[in-house]
């Protein structure tokens, strides 16, 4: 298995980062996860663009442009003979003696990338998954895909311990997103999902779903919705790079409508699959 450390392709067993890497000490860095189908990256350009934006938001300059990163990831995918899975990539603010202040400008970011086999979650997508509600205790820059994920981890762990796939996060009465995905509801045929602001990560999957809706004439609203609206929803679904469009059939022990995936979600799953096949082949 091959990985990339600082631009170099190495065997996984010899890859190393320093104990004073700022990612390790502070979570001072940004990352991306890109889906791979048939050995090809899906929405790769959109993910690389978001990586650049996340880096800019934490005042970090990436040593490579998206145009330089794309072929590197392609090379890694090919060397690892990855068919269906993900590419993970992260940049930290580099290695320097521990200090909250940024290191000097000549300290280069640490760049790490690897691939992993991940199947499409076909069974869960078919049956739907269960969720819990949890207060969103994260910071106010959730639009940045940063390495600081403790709030997300605590919520996801709580969900896992309850035998659930996702924690739906809310700030008071307002639903924001999931611990590792975006959340949408469907009411009377209209899809409602939180607007892309500082309180959510603007998921690439979320954006692709909304683009599909625009093309297909499916109505949607990008606005905050409440816990009451969530309870009264006809359908609830989660979206994300690895989970695609995932029906949520239970929230905090209560079934969503009849407890089965709804027709709007089903339709979106099919349209999303068609988009995958268009970009990456069958
Ligand atoms: N929100 C959070 C908190 C996430 O971690 C993710 C990534 N899995 C998403 C939303 C979905 O983003 P994307 O569709 O780009 O994977």
TrEMBL record:
Keywords: Aminotransferase, Pyridoxal phosphate, Transferase. GO terms for molecular function: D-alanine-2-oxoglutarate aminotransferase activity; pyridoxal phosphate binding. Its EC number is 2.6.1.21. InterPro entries: Aminotrans_IV, Aminotransferase-like, BCAT-like_C, BCAT-like_N, Class-IV_PLP-Dep_Aminotrnsfr, D_amino_transT. It is an enzyme of class 2 (transferase). Its cofactor is pyridoxal 5'-phosphate. One of its GO terms (biological process) is carboxylic acid biosynthetic process. Belongs to the class-IV pyridoxal-phosphate-dependent aminotransferase family. Homodimer. This is D-alanine aminotransferase.
């Amino acid at each position: 298995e091959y990985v990339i450390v600082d631009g170099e392709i190495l065997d996984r067993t010899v890859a190393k980062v320093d104990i004073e890497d700022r990612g390790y000490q502070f979570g001072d860095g940004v990352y991306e996860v890109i889906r791979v189908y048939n050995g090809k990256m899906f929405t790769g350009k959109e993910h690389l663009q978001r990586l650049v934006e996340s880096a800019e938001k934490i005042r970090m300059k990436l040593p490579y442009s998206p145009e330089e990163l794309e072929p590197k990831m392609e090379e890694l995918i090919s060397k690892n003979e990855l068919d269906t899975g993900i590419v993970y990539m992260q940049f930290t603010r580099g290695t320097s003696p521990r200090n909250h202040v940024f290191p000097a400008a000549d300290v280069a970011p640490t760049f790490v990338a690897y691939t992993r086999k991940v199947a499409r979650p076909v069974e869960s997508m078919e049956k739907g998954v269960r969720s819990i509600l949890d207060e969103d205790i994260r910071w106010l820059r959730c639009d940045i895909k940063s390495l600081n994920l403790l709030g997300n981890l605590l919520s996801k762990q709580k969900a896992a311990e309850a035998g659930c796939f996702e924690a739906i996060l809310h700030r008071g009465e307002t639903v924001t997103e999931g611990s590792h995905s975006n959340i949408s509801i469907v009411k009377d045929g209209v899809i409602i999902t939180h607007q892309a602001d500082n309180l959510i990560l603007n998921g690439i999957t979320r954006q692709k779903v909304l683009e599909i809706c625009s093309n297909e004439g499916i109505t949607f609203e990008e606005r905050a919705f409440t816990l009451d609206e969530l309870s009264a929803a006809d359908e609830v679904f989660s979206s994300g790079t690895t989970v695609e469009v995932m029906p949520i059939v239970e929230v905090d022990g209560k079934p969503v409508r009849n407890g089965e995936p709804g027709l709007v979600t089903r339709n979106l799953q099919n349209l999303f699959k068609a988009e995958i096949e268009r970009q990456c082949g069958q």
